[in-house]
Amino acid sequence: MTYVCVIALTSAMTYAKTTIFTQEQQQLARVAKALAHPARVAIIQLLASKQTCISGDIAAELPLSRTTVSQHLQGLKALDLIRGEIDGLTICYCLNTDLLRQVQQQFTAFFSAATTSPACEPTTTCTC
Fold this sequence. Notes:
The chain has helices at 2-18, 23-34, 38-50, 55-61, 66-78, 97-114, and strands at residues 52-54, 82-87, 90-95. By secondary structure, it is mainly α. The protein has a domain at 22-107: Arc Repressor Mutant, subunit A (Orthogonal Bundle). Strands 1-3-2 form a three-stranded antiparallel β-sheet. A hairpin with a 2-residue loop joins strand 2 (82-87) and strand 3. Helix 4 packs across helix 5. The protein is elongated and about 60 Å long. Residues 1-12 have low confidence and may be disordered.
Protein backbone atom coordinates (compact mmCIF):
# COMPACT_ATOMS: atom_id res chain seq x y z
CA MET A 1 0.00 0.00 0.00
CA THR A 2 2.82 2.41 0.83
CA TYR A 3 4.51 1.54 -2.46
CA VAL A 4 1.48 2.74 -4.45
CA CYS A 5 1.42 6.02 -2.52
CA VAL A 6 5.11 6.65 -3.26
CA ILE A 7 4.57 6.07 -6.98
CA ALA A 8 1.56 8.40 -7.03
CA LEU A 9 3.52 11.09 -5.21
CA THR A 10 6.48 10.78 -7.60
CA SER A 11 4.19 10.93 -10.60
CA ALA A 12 2.41 14.01 -9.25
CA MET A 13 5.74 15.73 -8.53
CA THR A 14 6.98 15.09 -12.06
CA TYR A 15 3.76 16.40 -13.57
CA ALA A 16 3.89 19.55 -11.46
CA LYS A 17 7.46 20.29 -12.55
CA THR A 18 6.70 20.19 -16.26
CA THR A 19 3.70 22.51 -15.96
CA ILE A 20 5.94 25.43 -15.06
CA PHE A 21 7.36 25.39 -18.60
CA THR A 22 5.67 26.74 -21.71
CA GLN A 23 3.87 24.42 -24.11
CA GLU A 24 6.57 25.13 -26.69
CA GLN A 25 9.35 24.19 -24.26
CA GLN A 26 7.53 20.98 -23.40
CA GLN A 27 7.01 20.12 -27.08
CA LEU A 28 10.66 20.78 -27.95
CA ALA A 29 11.74 18.55 -25.07
CA ARG A 30 9.39 15.74 -26.15
CA VAL A 31 10.61 15.89 -29.75
CA ALA A 32 14.26 16.08 -28.67
CA LYS A 33 13.73 13.02 -26.49
CA ALA A 34 12.07 11.15 -29.37
CA LEU A 35 14.97 12.02 -31.68
CA ALA A 36 17.55 11.03 -29.07
CA HIS A 37 17.61 7.46 -30.38
CA PRO A 38 19.37 6.77 -33.70
CA ALA A 39 16.72 4.22 -34.73
CA ARG A 40 13.99 6.88 -34.58
CA VAL A 41 16.18 9.31 -36.53
CA ALA A 42 16.75 6.58 -39.13
CA ILE A 43 13.01 5.87 -39.36
CA ILE A 44 12.22 9.55 -39.98
CA GLN A 45 15.00 9.78 -42.57
CA LEU A 46 13.71 6.64 -44.29
CA LEU A 47 10.14 7.94 -44.39
CA ALA A 48 11.38 11.29 -45.71
CA SER A 49 13.27 9.59 -48.51
CA LYS A 50 10.34 7.38 -49.55
CA GLN A 51 7.39 9.68 -48.71
CA THR A 52 5.39 6.68 -47.42
CA CYS A 53 6.38 3.25 -46.25
CA ILE A 54 4.81 0.00 -45.08
CA SER A 55 5.92 -1.04 -41.58
CA GLY A 56 7.43 -4.30 -42.87
CA ASP A 57 9.57 -2.36 -45.33
CA ILE A 58 10.91 -0.19 -42.50
CA ALA A 59 12.03 -3.25 -40.54
CA ALA A 60 13.70 -4.65 -43.68
CA GLU A 61 15.69 -1.43 -44.11
CA LEU A 62 17.04 -1.23 -40.55
CA PRO A 63 19.33 -3.60 -38.67
CA LEU A 64 16.65 -4.12 -36.00
CA SER A 65 13.96 -6.68 -35.33
CA ARG A 66 10.37 -6.00 -36.41
CA THR A 67 9.37 -5.79 -32.75
CA THR A 68 11.98 -3.13 -32.01
CA VAL A 69 11.05 -1.13 -35.11
CA SER A 70 7.39 -1.40 -34.12
CA GLN A 71 8.16 0.01 -30.66
CA HIS A 72 10.03 2.97 -32.17
CA LEU A 73 7.20 3.57 -34.66
CA GLN A 74 4.69 3.63 -31.82
CA GLY A 75 6.79 6.19 -29.93
CA LEU A 76 6.99 8.45 -32.98
CA LYS A 77 3.29 7.96 -33.65
CA ALA A 78 2.38 8.83 -30.03
CA LEU A 79 3.99 12.24 -30.57
CA ASP A 80 2.21 12.57 -33.94
CA LEU A 81 5.56 12.93 -35.73
CA ILE A 82 4.43 10.10 -37.98
CA ARG A 83 1.00 8.84 -38.92
CA GLY A 84 -0.06 5.31 -39.66
CA GLU A 85 -3.01 4.08 -41.67
CA ILE A 86 -4.19 0.48 -41.46
CA ASP A 87 -4.52 -1.16 -44.87
CA GLY A 88 -5.58 -4.77 -44.43
CA LEU A 89 -2.83 -6.54 -42.49
CA THR A 90 -0.25 -3.77 -42.94
CA ILE A 91 0.12 -0.24 -41.63
CA CYS A 92 1.34 2.43 -44.01
CA TYR A 93 3.36 5.08 -42.15
CA CYS A 94 4.13 8.61 -43.33
CA LEU A 95 5.58 11.77 -41.82
CA ASN A 96 3.42 14.48 -40.31
CA THR A 97 5.16 17.20 -42.31
CA ASP A 98 3.00 19.98 -40.85
CA LEU A 99 4.15 19.16 -37.32
CA LEU A 100 7.74 18.63 -38.46
CA ARG A 101 7.76 22.09 -40.08
CA GLN A 102 6.40 23.60 -36.86
CA VAL A 103 9.06 21.82 -34.80
CA GLN A 104 11.73 22.92 -37.29
CA GLN A 105 10.70 26.55 -36.81
CA GLN A 106 10.72 26.14 -33.02
CA PHE A 107 14.18 24.54 -33.02
CA THR A 108 15.50 27.20 -35.41
CA ALA A 109 14.24 29.95 -33.09
CA PHE A 110 15.64 28.09 -30.06
CA PHE A 111 19.14 27.72 -31.55
CA SER A 112 19.14 31.25 -32.95
CA ALA A 113 18.39 32.66 -29.50
CA ALA A 114 20.96 30.38 -27.88
CA THR A 115 23.74 31.41 -30.26
CA THR A 116 23.27 35.19 -30.41
CA SER A 117 25.35 35.95 -27.32
CA PRO A 118 29.14 35.68 -27.40
CA ALA A 119 30.32 32.13 -26.89
CA CYS A 120 32.57 30.94 -24.10
CA GLU A 121 35.66 29.67 -25.85
CA PRO A 122 37.04 26.29 -24.73
CA THR A 123 40.38 27.85 -23.83
CA THR A 124 38.98 30.79 -21.83
CA THR A 125 37.15 30.98 -18.56
CA CYS A 126 33.61 32.28 -18.31
CA THR A 127 33.26 35.87 -17.14
CA CYS A 128 30.26 35.42 -14.88
